[in-house]
Design brief:
The chain is of the alpha/beta class. It has helices at 35-43, 63-71, 84-94, 112-124, 146-155, 159-164, 167-171, 200-213, 222-231, 251-264, 268-278; strands at residues 6-11, 51-57, 75-79, 99-104, 129-133, 142-145, 178-182. Strands 3-2-1-4-6-5-7 form a seven-stranded mixed beta sheet, with helices on both faces. Helix 3 (84-94) crosses helix 5 (146-155) and helix 10 packs antiparallel against helix 11.
Length: 279
């Protein structure tokens, strides 16, 4: 364990389509800490003293992220905008990482205690790649050994693999030792809860939870969130109708989802026309 260098690489950018600049929004509202800084704060609580690295693109609009990294005394790395796999591989290489924990800058509720538990299991099981399932949206985590990340980088050039970093591993289980950790049957809340920030309603919900639970000397846990939401379920109405972006296996799957969305939004004719094109 002593010889392993662990890095938490936080994927960040400021040109979000749904909520531009969300990584720099105050959290909670009027706080001195930004959303990204709340993630950094929680990442620093993970055991084994991991290196914290903000990984963004070379676009000038992301210069402010470098300022945040310096202010919080964490590392910073800039790489390709669209080829996120190349960015992660280059960052892992630059900082000599053995294990890379991947976070994104729109998930401020990441639980460092769950993350520490998963990291320990990843090491004990000698997995190439570990991913959780069943946790609320924004709480599932993944980590990969450097050799696994390097194999991805060398073996695939498909755009979807380069954009989503670990998709190649999940689609090629015979090539990697994958550890799946399922929390779905335990008291960790609903996998449909949106503990992520994609748009204004998500941000409002995040502000409400931080105002109710956060303290300067205390990092609240997922169990505390579960207790709060079970006691005050009306809070879940704030962002319950928001749509969660997905990674589709192919165009057919994406179009099927689009038809279902058109039907749910009461566009039956448009759904029918699109469906007819798939026959």
């Amino acid at each position: 364990m002593v010889n392993l260098k662990i890095g938490i690489v936080i994927q960040a950018r400021l040109n979000s389509n749904r909520l531009p600049g969300k990584a720099l929004l105050p959290l909670p509202n009027a706080s001195e800490k930004t959303l990204l800084e709340q993630i950094i704060r929680r990442a620093l609580a993970v055991k084994y003293n991991p290196e914290i690295i903000i990984a963004t693109s070379t676009r000038s609009e992301n210069d402010e992220l470098e300022i945040v990294a310096k202010r919080n005394q964490v590392q910073f790395f800039r790489g390709k905008e669209e080829d996120v796999l190349a960015r992660f591989y280059a960052a892992a290489t630059a900082f000599n990482l053995d294990i890379i924990i991947r976070l994104t800058a729109d998930n401020p509720f990441i639980d460092p205690f769950i993350l520490s538990q998963i990291l320990q299991e990843h090491i004990d099981q000698q997995a190439d790649y570990t991913v959780t399932t069943g946790l609320p949206i924004g709480l599932n985590v993944e980590m990969v050994n450097f050799k696994g990340l390097e194999q991805c980088f060398q073996e695939t050039m498909l755009p979807e693999h380069r954009e989503h970093v670990t998709l190649y591993i999940r689609q090629n289980p015979a090539k990697f030792k994958i550890l799946y950790k399922n929390f779905g049957n335990q008291n960790y809340g609903s996998p449909n809860w949106r503990l992520t920030v994609d748009n204004e309603n998500d941000y409002a919900f995040a502000c409400a939870l931080f105002l109710l639970l956060d303290r300067p000397s205390h990092i609240f846990t997922l169990h505390e969130i579960v207790q709060l939401l079970n006691t005050n379920p009306a809070l879940l109405l704030i962002n319950k109708d928001n749509y969660q972006k997905k990674v589709f296996k192919n165009v057919q799957e994406e179009l099927t989802e689009a038809i279902q969305m058109l039907q749910s939004l009461d566009f039956p004719q448009a759904a029918k026309i699109l469906a007819s094109q798939l026959l």
